[in-house]
């Protein structure tokens, strides 16, 4: 019975591999339905081929760089989050390539389901070329972006010289000019036919000129018809009625001239001068305008309107050699997202407080155990053991454990509405609290952190670190003992 079950399993696997191999072979042999290309930047070129029957799209990117290359798809133009991406390159003559996604963090997470397939990679004369393909729709409904006959956004980035070693970090991230987002419909065929239409309209333009000459001929016949009438006017000469019998009525003598006394009556109106007298009050009316300059002073209040916080910014800090945190602020959404990476495989603790102790602090505790993530919203009151919140206001977006490192990504609102157990994040200094256990996942007083595996960090989370130098505070190990920190 067991042998039969094994044989059936092998048969199914062989069938799946055969079908997949035939699909890939067919895709490799078929000609694409159409091909398009874009020069995304002076350094980044992409072309893609679409196979409509197989529902496959294949990309080739050529980049003037010898570092890592990133390329992805997103339904949002705001940023790369959320998006489906690949990162690859050539290091020491060997290619590397993986399927990633972006959630709430600015750094990518490796997909559990690798749905992009790498077909070629090369690095020559300072240019890196990567070829890869994927289905329009994959089996990954959570982290992949479906390719449909509608606009989406291509995201791209690269590092000129640095390759990815163990992980992508902000130390080897792209520079500002080495990334961009471009809107395009990948399944829209090139509009080549439209270029032949204009020529068809050119010939007709020659026809109208042929009709113009005839229009000039009729007018030449009209003038002759006007000549005969010129003979009729001579009959108008007899009207000798011109002898102006009207001349005698030159009643010019009419004694209208004598009425020169009339104008004399107009001279008395010497009232004109008085009218000029009062106008002397008009000049003073020009003095008030001198008050206009002060009206220009209020506009000096306009600049302050440029002070509101930017739409998005981020910060990062190595709280210890083992504990790294990245925070991203979304002012428009009144939301903040955190990503912590810790060299540990036990529980991870992170929180905020208005003091440099965990008393009256808002924290999360999470990790990965037996391949499954755990994550909860807690608070500390007077006890050294955290209490789980009735309202879970922190949201987990990613958790993984790999090569002895644990990564957690999560977010919350500035003001969660939980006035009893949460801390309101304002535009002022507060304290980040952090702690972890190197290996134990169970949270108890018996496996609490060691004194060196916790600390505090003073910062204004709503202040852009790139615009303002913020204060950093790290507690000394002997200050207050382990009981006063998470």
From TrEMBL:
<dbReference type="GO" id="GO:0042420">
    <property type="term" value="P:dopamine catabolic process"/>
</dbReference>
<dbReference type="GO" id="GO:0030667">
    <property type="term" value="C:secretory granule membrane"/>
</dbReference>
<feature type="compositionally biased region" description="Pro residues">
    <location>
        <begin position="200"/>
        <end position="261"/>
    </location>
</feature>
<protein>
    <recommendedName>
        <fullName>DOMON domain-containing protein</fullName>
    </recommendedName>
</protein>
<feature type="compositionally biased region" description="Pro residues">
    <location>
        <begin position="270"/>
        <end position="311"/>
    </location>
</feature>
<feature type="signal peptide">
    <location>
        <begin position="1"/>
        <end position="21"/>
    </location>
</feature>
<dbReference type="GO" id="GO:0005615">
    <property type="term" value="C:extracellular space"/>
</dbReference>
<feature type="region of interest" description="Disordered">
    <location>
        <begin position="184"/>
        <end position="316"/>
    </location>
</feature>
<keyword id="KW-0732">Signal</keyword>
<dbReference type="Pfam" id="PF03351">
    <property type="entry name" value="DOMON"/>
</dbReference>
<dbReference type="InterPro" id="IPR045266">
    <property type="entry name" value="DOH_DOMON"/>
</dbReference>
<dbReference type="InterPro" id="IPR000945">
    <property type="entry name" value="DBH-like"/>
</dbReference>
<dbReference type="InterPro" id="IPR005018">
    <property type="entry name" value="DOMON_domain"/>
</dbReference>
<dbReference type="GO" id="GO:0006589">
    <property type="term" value="P:octopamine biosynthetic process"/>
</dbReference>
<feature type="domain" description="DOMON">
    <location>
        <begin position="321"/>
        <end position="437"/>
    </location>
</feature>
<feature type="domain" description="DOMON">
    <location>
        <begin position="42"/>
        <end position="159"/>
    </location>
</feature>
<dbReference type="GO" id="GO:0004500">
    <property type="term" value="F:dopamine beta-monooxygenase activity"/>
</dbReference>
<dbReference type="GO" id="GO:0042421">
    <property type="term" value="P:norepinephrine biosynthetic process"/>
</dbReference>
<dbReference type="GO" id="GO:0005507">
    <property type="term" value="F:copper ion binding"/>
</dbReference>
């Amino acid at each position: 019975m067991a042998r039969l079950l094994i044989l059936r399993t092998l048969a199914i696997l062989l069938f799946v591999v055969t079908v997949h191999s035939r699909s890939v072979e067919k895709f490799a042999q078929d000609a694409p339905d159409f091909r398009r290309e874009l020069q995304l930047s002076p350094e980044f070129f992409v072309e893609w081929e679409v196979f409509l029957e197989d529902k496959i799209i294949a990309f080739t990117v050529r980049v003037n760089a010898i570092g890592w290359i990133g390329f992805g798809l997103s339904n949002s133009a705001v940023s790369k989050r959320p998006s489906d991406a690949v990162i690859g390159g050539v290091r020491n003559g060997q290619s590397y390539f993986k399927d990633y996604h972006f959630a709430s963090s600015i750094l990518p997470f490796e997909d559990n389901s690798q749905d992009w397939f790498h077909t070629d990679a090369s690095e020559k004369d300072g240019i890196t070329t990567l070829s890869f393909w994927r289905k329009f729709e994959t089996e990954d409904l959570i982290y992949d972006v479906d390719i449909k006959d509608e606009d989406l956004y291509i995201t791209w980035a690269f590092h000129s010289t640095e390759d990815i070693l163990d992980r992508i970090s902000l130390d080897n991230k792209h520079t500002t000019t080495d990334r961009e987002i471009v809107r395009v419909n990948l399944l829209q065929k090139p509009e080549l036919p439209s270029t032949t239409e204009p020529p068809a309209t050119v010939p007709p333009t020659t026809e109208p000129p042929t009709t113009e000459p005839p229009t000039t001929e009729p007018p030449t016949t009209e003038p002759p018809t006007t000549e005969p009438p010129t003979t009729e006017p001579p009959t108008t000469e007899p009207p000798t009625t011109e002898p102006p019998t009207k001349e005698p009525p030159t009643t010019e003598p009419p004694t209208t001239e004598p009425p020169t006394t009339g104008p004399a009556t107009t001279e008395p109106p010497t009232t004109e001068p008085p009218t000029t007298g009062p106008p002397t009050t008009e000049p003073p009316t020009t003095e008030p305008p001198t008050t206009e300059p002060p009206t220009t002073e209020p506009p000096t209040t306009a600049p302050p309107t440029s002070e509101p916080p930017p739409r998005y910014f981020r910060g990062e800090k190595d709280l210890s050699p083992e504990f790294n945190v990245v925070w991203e602020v979304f002012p428009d959404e009144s939301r903040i997202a955190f990503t912590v990476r810790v060299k540990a495989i036990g529980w991870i603790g992170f929180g905020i407080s208005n003091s440099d102790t965990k008393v009256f602090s808002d924290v999360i505790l999470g990790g990965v155990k037996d391949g499954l993530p755990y994550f909860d919203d807690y608070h500390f009151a007077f006890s050294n053991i955290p209490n789980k919140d009735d309202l879970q206001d922190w949201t987990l977006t990613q958790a993984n454990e790999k090569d002895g490192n644990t990564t957690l990504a999560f977010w919350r609102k500035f003001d969660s509405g939980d006035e009893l157990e949460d801390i309101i994040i304002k535009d002022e200094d507060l304290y980040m609290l952090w702690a972890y256990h190197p290996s134990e996942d169970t949270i108890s007083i018996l496996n609490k952190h060691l004194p060196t595996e916790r600390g505090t960090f003073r910062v204004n989370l709503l202040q852009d670190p790139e615009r303002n130098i913020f204060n950093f505070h790290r507690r000394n190990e002997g200050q207050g003992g382990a009981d006063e920190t998470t």
